[in-house]
Amino acid sequence: MVGSFYLAFGVSLLAVARENDYVRIHVASFAYVAFAVLQAISLVRYQAVNWFELPGQLLAVVLVALFVLGAAGIQGYRVARAT
């Protein structure tokens, strides 16, 4: 269930990047970055994941991808707004 939640985030950001329509999703981009950072802080603080096993590594990849795609959305929005 949690994986499908993360997958929905990633798919929406990839769709926006493909359409080059960052203005429409700028609020969600900020939310994705904030979500990735806060989730990472929570996981590091409470040690709920074993980072040396596959599920922990997959979670790390998902959080990094959300952060990178969210940051790309923010940057795309700034560029689109400037023009």
Outline the fold blueprint.
Layout lengths: L1 H18 L6 H21 L7 H29 L1
Overall mean pLDDT stands at 83
**In what range is the share of β-strand residues?**
under 5%
How many helices? The count is: 3
The radius of gyration is 14 Å
Order of helices and strands: HHH
Q: Per the principal axes of the C-alpha atoms, what is the gross shape? A: elongated
- Given as residue ranges, the uncertain stretches (5+ residues, pLDDT < 50) are none
Helix content: over 70%
Sheet with most strands? none
The secondary structure category is mainly alpha
What is the tally of beta strands? 0
Termini separation comes to 40 Å
Structure write-up:
14% of the residues are buried. The longest helix is centred in the last third of the chain and has 29 residues, at 54-82. The N and C termini lie far apart (40 Å). Helix 2 (26-46) runs antiparallel to helix 3. The chain has 83 residues and is mainly alpha-helical. The chain is 82% helix and 0% strand.
Keywords, separated by commas or semicolons:
single chain; 83 residues; mainly alpha; 3 helices; 82% helix; 0% strand
The gist of it:
This protein is mainly α and 83 residues long.
